[in-house]
UniProtKB/TrEMBL annotation, chain A:
Family: Belongs to the GINS1/PSF1 family.
Start and end residues of each DNA replication complex GINS protein PSF1 C-terminal domain: 144-195
Pfam families listed in its UniProt record: PSF1_C (PF24997), Sld5 (PF05916)
Domain of life from the UniProt record: Eukaryota
Organism of this sequence: Echeneis naucrates (Live sharksucker)
Entry keyword annotation includes Repeat: no
Keyword check for Nucleus: yes
Cellular component, GO annotation: GINS complex
Descriptive protein name: DNA replication complex GINS protein PSF1
Subcellular location(s) per record: Chromosome; Nucleus
All residue ranges annotated as the GINS subunit domain in the record: 40-128
Record-linked InterPro entries: GINS_A, GINS_bundle-like_dom_sf, GINS_Psf1, PSF1_C
Gene assigned in the entry: gins1
Keyword terms: Chromosome, DNA replication, Nucleus
CDD domains for this protein: GINS_A_psf1 (cd11710), GINS_B_Psf1 (cd21696)
UniProtKB/TrEMBL annotation, chain B:
GO BP terms: mitotic DNA replication initiation
Protein name as it appears in the record: DNA replication complex GINS protein PSF3
Assembly and oligomerization: Component of the GINS complex.
Stated role: The GINS complex plays an essential role in the initiation of DNA replication. Required for correct functioning of the GINS complex, a complex that plays an essential role in the initiation of DNA replication, and progression of DNA replication forks. GINS complex is a core component of CDC45-MCM-GINS (CMG) helicase, the molecular machine that unwinds template DNA during replication, and around which the replisome is built.
Stated family: Belongs to the GINS3/PSF3 family.
Alphabetized CDD domains for the sequence: GINS_A_psf3, GINS_B_Psf3
All residue ranges annotated as the GINS subunit domain in the record: 93-168
Xref: InterPro entries: GINS_A, GINS_bundle-like_dom_sf, GINS_Psf3, GINS_Psf3_sf, PSF3_N
Chain ranges of the DNA replication complex GINS protein PSF3 N-terminal domain: 21-72
Pfam families (UniProt xref): PSF3_N, Sld5
The organism of origin for this protein: Echeneis naucrates
Alphabetic keyword roster: DNA replication, Nucleus
Cell compartments where the protein resides: Nucleus
Primary location: nucleus
Amino acid sequence: MFCEKALELIRELHRMNDGQLPTFNEDGLRQVLQEMEALYEQNQNDVNEAKSEGRTDLIPSIKLRHCCLLRNQRCLTAYLYDRLLRIRALRWEYGSVLPANVRFQMCAEELQWFSQYKKSLAIFMRSLGGGEGLDITQDMKPPKSLYIEVRCLKDHGEFEIDDGTVILLKKNSQHFLPRWKCEQLIRQGVLEHVMS
Amino acid sequence: MNMQSYFPVPPGVGMEENFLSLDDILLSHERLPVRSDCAFPRLGFLEKSADTQDIAEGTKMELPLWLTKGLYEKKRKVVSVELPKVYREGWRTVFNADPNVVDLHKMGPYYYSLGSQLLHFDSPENPDIAQTLLQTFIGRFRRTMDSSQNAYNEDTSAVVERLDSLEKGASCLM
């Protein structure tokens, strides 16, 4: 049956229902596009034959191939769109700089989309709060306190907080830091919130 | 990394599908027993049981839902759809008697969604099918909601195993 490869792409994404981004399946995409080209060509030939030789009996087959073309188109569009939804989520989970291993999963056009999305979001955030700007990617859950105790899970080097103090984030060191500064690092797995 | 910001396109409600929903695309891959009401020249290779160049009129085969929906025409010149077992009168009686008995994952796992999609094919049994789908969901809803709300430290896998995909989705939200 046609459109099996297209469905594989969908299954690939559906398997990762936690929002992780798998590697861009360029090969799979190309195979689906090839199948679409072949279907289209066969239909063109059949349509010409139907018109010139009055072979209306070919019409059901033309219709079937057309359904397959639409199906492939649907699968490809849904595949690309769902990936964009995951990539958009990355900006909110990881921040504006993506780790290299995540960037590697994206194709060139997706990277471009990400940087444009970042820009749009930044422009929007700057316009909030009467022109002063507001970082809405912080405090995704209502915070319970201003400062939190964190433990460093891996070496992250120097970290500057708002009053200019520089903290050295060494593995296993513990610090008492402003919540809003730590949020992103917590999400990235560098720091761990210590709850006493 | 728990992606709380990933919001996939949800499946459609009732007889509607959402074009971009991964769930709906997978649902529409399910196969239906179908009979061709006309010939499909040059497509014999799709039909594995016969070795012919064309699909002859009157051939019984299994086609995916998406293709069946695409080919179906009300005037009935193209394909006729048979009801899969689970939606026929025999099974409907079972569901009406006690909806909690059935293992919907084994019977589906898209029992409700596929059942709703079947309504597109103008079977005379449509009103009964629709009624059974609704009553089955209502009948099972209380148990699935109960077990999802009160599952603290309990192993609910035995219950979850027998749920249809729609029920599984609903219980995750609770």
